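Researcher: Good morning. I'm working through a list of sequences from a screen, and I'd like to move beyond sequence-only analysis. For each chain I'm collecting a predicted structure so we can compare shapes side by side. This is the next one on the list. No need for commentary yet; just the structure.
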Amino acid sequence: MFLLGTLVNGLLIIVGTLLGKMLHRIPENIKGTVMHSIGLAVIVLGLQMALKGEDFLVVIISLVFGAVIGEYFALENKLNTLGDWLERKMGSSSQGSISQGFVTATLIFVIGAMAIIGALDSGIRGDHDVLYTKAIIDGFTALILTTTLGIGVLFSAIPVVIYQGLIALFATQIDQFVPKLLMDSFIKEMTATGGVMIFAIGLNLTGLIKIRVANLLPGIFVVGVIVTIMYYYQLYF
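Model: Good morning. Structure tokens for this chain:
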């Protein structure tokens, strides 16, 4: 079952959120320090990912064009609008903004190499180990985020399941169309580009700056276009 890893990932996000909801009676000063700690850890994670790329020019170009596309379509606003809609449906929460929890958790869980690599492994080889590992990490992260951002974190499980599920479904046929060398190159540069976005999320969590990270998401697809062009240019020229 190629969706097993994705479903487990979504389930552990929900479980982590519910456990975090039970631990919400934490003093505000502790919550603030915990949030800053999470932000710093996310910054380090993003930096590690960003340094794994082989051609940082690809990362820069992808982020620039991704930002232009994202700003044009106002992806951050649309994601926030969805979060606000959830908040209206759920009612106001005394424990953080449902919209903020949904948006922040979604960006953390969706951006990154493990989501794509794990979904590809599930679809191509039926190997769910990467997604199982990601599920455990996401579950603990959801628990911690919920103590500060509230129940909105739970709804991030929906885009995670949809996103990874679609990749896994596509991956069941991808090896027939995409050469392994091209896929490996894409994963490396995608990891680096996603790492910069993760770094930006960490900065947001620390409160140092507000970066519209969702508007950078098209950069992942720009990476695919650039890497594909470079691969076939080197192959034929």
